[in-house]
Specification:
mainly alpha; globular
Length: about 425
């Protein structure tokens, strides 16, 4: 009863009452525009650019790397300049620039210009993510975990809708139309997200603990294993996130690749909410290890077993885990109370995303299957690091809840963070 009263009081003090689902919808739309479309629509369009625009496999990998470098820059900007997290102008300006970068892609055949545009798209998508995530963690932190989880599902919705758009257009139009249609979809999402309330002004840290302070074990050895697992995940997952469609289309009918990508998005929509619920029953190290093993199987399937069925199962497994891994890993880092854990983990993850396409580029001369197998092995190595994390993990650490969400959410790629199960 007291908790409900506190929530009502908090809602009154933060401004006019709005349904939390309105906030969920606006944040989901921002994430759909910035991540689902702005960042990941390149995956289903890449095969069209290979066949219709003359883009080589190596150049395609370079465009992907440019996007991930831009994302790293945008994430670091969010860490270094916390005021960005609380700026509606940053959100709106980023939505506009991101949409413009999508519109400009078909205007040239210059790989250099494409690299600049994809770098710009990565930077702005990171800023959109920073503002949207900070807003969710700030305004919905006292609500059930599944609510913010559905907001993060906006990434999956953007992937599914943009993938469906490309799937429909590929039979009636060319790669230029795919980019223009994607820009239109991003503009629709941007309109829905336009009035999203950013994170509020940070409050005092007074009274921010949830119970008496207890001495905590030194978290360095567990955080080292977690950092290794999450960085390796960045390398492995991004290879599939970039080349999965092209790899499937090498051995399956033309619709299978884009159809699989739609399924990736659909599976990702509920994944954060579902993994948050699983966290009530199982410890985060166990969940992280399981999610990584499942993801590795999904990445390897199209390379080991041809056909539509394997492609669709791969898409389902990959979509159900890639957001969940981020949710679990960053929650575990916060539970360990390691200084600036989310910022450090996100930086390692971003560096991994840059390295992924570079590492597999020499293998692309022989197609994408070898690249997927290597990516699956890297994700299995991440699962091995997560298994080390399970040894003596301090489940009973006292958890300090900060009332300054910007400090942990400036670059957080996760759902709301809660203490681990005792």
């Amino acid at each position: 009863m007291r908790l409900r009263t506190q929530r009502r009081s908090s809602a009154r003090s933060s401004g006019p009452f709005r349904s939390p689902w309105t906030h969920v919808a606006q944040a989901a739309a921002a994430l759909a525009a910035g991540m689902g479309v702005g960042r990941f629509v390149y995956t289903p369009i890449l095969p069209l650019m290979h066949t219709q625009a003359g883009l080589s496999s190596a150049a395609g990998a370079n465009l992907a790397t440019a996007n991930y470098i831009g994302y790293l820059i945008g994430s670091l900007m969010g860490i270094a300049m916390p005021a960005l997290v609380r700026s509606p102008a940053v959100l709106r300006g980023s939505l506009i620039v991101l949409t413009g970068s999508l519109v400009a892609m078909p205007a040239t055949h210059s790989v250099t210009v494409w690299i600049v545009l994809r770098l710009l798209a990565g930077l702005t998508s990171a800023l959109i993510f920073v503002v949207a995530v900070s807003s969710v963690l700030s305004h919905l932190r006292d609500h059930p975990a599944h609510l913010p989880g559905w907001a993060f599902g906006g990434v999956g919705a953007g992937i599914a809708l943009s993938g469906l758009l490309v799937l429909v257009l590929r039979s009636v139009a060319d790669w230029r139309a795919a980019w223009w249609a994607s820009a239109g979809l991003a503009a629709v999402f941007a309109a829905v997200a336009w009035n999203l309330r950013p994170e509020g002004t940070p409050a005092s840290d007074a009274g921010s603990t949830t119970g008496p302070a207890r001495p905590s074990p030194r978290p360095h050895r567990w955080f080292t294993a977690l950092f290794a697992a999450y960085t390796l995940e960045g390398i492995g997952y991004i290879v599939a996130g970039t080349f999965l469609v092209a790899a499937i289309e090498q051995s399956s009918p033309g619709w299978a690749g884009s159809g699989a990508w739609v399924l990736v998005g659909l599976a990702a929509v509920p994944s954060s909410a579902l993994w948050a619920r699983l966290g009530r029953r199982w410890s985060r190290p166990d969940l992280l290890c399981a999610a990584l093993v499942i993801q590795a199987v999904g990445i390897a399937l199209p390379a080991l077993i041809g056909g539509v069925t394997a492609a669709l199962i791969s898409a389902l497994l990959f979509g159900a885990t890639f957001l969940g891994v981020s949710t679990i890993a960053l929650a575990a880092g916060t539970h360990l109370q390691f200084p600036r854990s989310v910022a450090l983990l996100t930086a390692g993850y971003s560096v991994g995303q840059i390295l992924g396409p570079l590492v597999v580029t020499p293998l692309l001369h022989h197609g994408y299957h070898q690249a997927l197998i290597l990516a699956a092995l890297v994700v299995l190595a991440a699962a091995g690091a997560a298994a080390v994390l399970r040894i003596g993990f301090p489940h009973h650490m006292a958890v300090v809840r900060s009332t300054v969400p910007g400090r942990r959410s400036a670059s957080a790629e996760t759902a709301p963070i809660r203490s681990d199960r005792p």
